[in-house]
Structure formats: structure tokens, C-alpha cells
Specification:
The chain has 13 helices and 10 strands. The relative contact order is 0.16. It is 45% helix and 17% strand. Helix 2 packs parallel to helix 13, helix 3 runs parallel beside helix 4 and helix 8 runs parallel beside helix 11. The strands form 2 sheets. The chain has an 8-stranded parallel β-barrel. Strands 8-9 form a two-stranded antiparallel sheet. Strand 2, helix 3 and strand 3 form a beta-alpha-beta unit. By secondary structure, the chain is α/β, with parallel strands linked by helices.
């Protein structure tokens, strides 16, 4: 047990139950290689990247289902060029039997490519449930968003949660990754105080090179001060090594109180390293159990 943590093994193990993973359309071979280390039924999110086409996304969702996992395709609102493009995607997912679960996000483009400004517009379109979607994930940002002010983020999560409820859709919240458990837990508590009781999947960076982690952190506005880096277990003056989320997860388990935080689960951003993340998870879970 990390000397900085007082979390019990059962508390950590409980937090690791029903974790989810993220992959791109190009990661199917790596997922196949890792299948023996990933529990059956695991939710695996499939990103909606600008350099991947519909066929690649659909093939990835089919592969996830074929391998015995639960596919969660992402739908990026601002990348969609038209209503017909959204319907084409949803119809294909329904045909493949992979439409039950999706994650809706605004997406990276500053200017929408079509009629959908944000994830809320996708929910309000009414098309999700029309094509068999039953469960919808939405984004959460414990440390804020580099392009959206705080009050707008709170309005967005409240509006999306209410819109899902009105349409009879269940949902969960998947947060951006971070290196410090304290702001995550404080944010989740604030979410609960606003009457949002959906499960929250806390974003966790899988084991990766420190330089790579810093690149993603800068892109998404994640805090990386020297003190935060030290808490997480790496140094900003030595970026040559790799870092895993051991300390972050233990700190999260330390502060997690079901009465204040409700249902928490973990969502691992693999950064193209689904094999490395699955190996790390296997070793970490084994270590916690011993």
C-alpha cells in the first residue's frame, strides 16, 4: 500500500469494479490481444476522431461486441455535417446491434460542421431513442474546460441530465482525466448537490509516458503544477519515464464517501495503449487483493 494512502483494499477493489476503457477505431488488434485480461461485458468507448470514417467506427463497435464487451460509440455533435449523417450512423449501429449505449459530446471543432452545436442538441433531436439508444453518457469537467466558462458547464450538465430523463433515457457522466483526486471528489459532491444522481465514471489516465500525458493534459486544460505532479507520482523536471494512476486511485478511494458522492466508477483513457492499460489493471487489481 502506498504510504500516502489509508484506503483499505476492499475500498480500492470496489472502486475498480465495472471499470470502462476507451479505444480508437485503430485499436481493434490491440483489443484482441488484450482480451484475456479484460473482463467480459466491460464497457469500451469508441472515440469519434476526425481522421476516422464511419466504416472504421462501425467495425470497431462490431469487434467490441464480438469479443464479448459492451460497445459505447461516441457521437461528436460538431463533427456531424447533417441530420442525415447522424441518422446514417444511428441506423448502422442499430443494424449491427451496437446502438444500446452511446456517449454524446460536443467535439473538438470550434465551429459546427452541421446543425448540431453541442451534445444537448443531439439529445433534443429525439433521434437517439428512435434508433434504439437506451443509455447515454455525457461529459463532465472537474477542472473546467479550456473553451467553456464554469457557469455554462454547470448549465450544460443540468440541461443534458434533464433532457435524458424527459426522453426516458438512462445515463452516466464520464469526466475528463486528471492527476489530482481532490478536485474530482469536490466536483462530484457539487454534482450531487445539484440533484444529479447518475453514476459518475471518473476519468483516469492509463499508464503512459510522462511527455505524452503532459501533451494531453495541456490540450484539455488539466492541472499539472509541480505539487499536483508530485501527488500523482512523477516529476515535471524528469519527463523521460512513465507514470501510472496508482496514487490517484488510492487517493480517490481514500476520499470516496457513497453518502456524499453516490455511485463512482472508473473510466480509463488508454491513449492508444489498451494493452498496457489492461496489463496495468491486472497487476494492480492482483496487488490490491493480496
Amino acid at each position: 500500500m502506498d504510504a500516502l494512502s489509508t484506503a483499505s483494499a476492499p475500498a480500492i477493489a470496489a472502486l475498480l469494479e465495472d471499470f470502462s476503457l476507451e479505444m480508437t477505431g485503430k485499436d481493434v488488434p490491440r483489443l484482441e490481444e488484450a482480451r484475456d485480461r479484460i473482463p467480459a461485458g466491460t464497457r469500451i468507448n469508441i472515440t469519434f476522431l476526425g481522421n476516422e470514417d464511419l466504416d472504421m467506427r462501425l467495425a470497431a463497435a462490431r469487434a467490441v461486441r464480438r469479443l464479448g464487451y459492451t460497445p459505447v460509440p461516441h457521437i461528436s455533435a460538431r463533427r456531424l455535417r447533417s441530420r442525415s449523417e447522424l441518422e446514417e450512423l444511428l441506423a448502422a449501429l442499430r443494424s449491427d446491434g451496437t446502438a444500446d449505449n452511446v456517449l454524446v459530446i460536443g467535439g473538438d471543432p470550434a465551429t459546427p460542421h452541421g446543425p448540431y452545436d453541442d451534445a444537448l442538441a443531439l439529445i433534443r433531436s429525439g433521434l437517439l431513442q428512435s434508433y434504439g439508444v437506451r443509455h447515454v453518457g455525457i461529459g463532465g469537467y472537474p477542472e473546467g474546460h479550456p473553451a467553456i466558462v464554469g457557469p455554462a458547464l454547470w448549465s450544460a450538465i443540468e440541461d443534458k441530465t434533464a433532457a435524458l430523463a424527459r426522453r426516458g433515457l438512462s445515463g452516466d457522466v464520464i469526466t475528463q482525466f486528471g492527476f489530482d483526486a481532490d478536485p474530482v471528489l469536490a466536483w462530484v459532491e457539487a454534482v450531487r448537490k445539484r440533484g444529479i444522481d447518475a453514476p459518475v465514471r471518473v476519468g483516469v489516465p492509463g499508464p503512459a509516458g510522462i511527455k505524452r500525458l503532459m501533451t494531453y493534459a495541456a490540450r484539455f486544460g488539466v492541472g499539472t503544477s509541480t505539487s499536483i505532479a508530485k501527488k500523482y507520482g512523477f516529476s515535471l523536471t524528469n519527463l523521460m519515464g512513465t507514470a501510472g494512476p496508482d496514487r490517484f486511485i488510492r487517493a480517490l478511494a481514500d476520499g470516496y464517501d457513497t453518502r456524499r458522492h453516490g455511485v463512482l466508477k472508473l473510466h480509463f483513457y488508454t491513449f492508444g495503449g489498451i494493452g498496457a492499460t489492461s496489463r496495468w489493471l491486472t497487476d494492480f487489481r492482483t496487488g490490491v487483493g493480496n
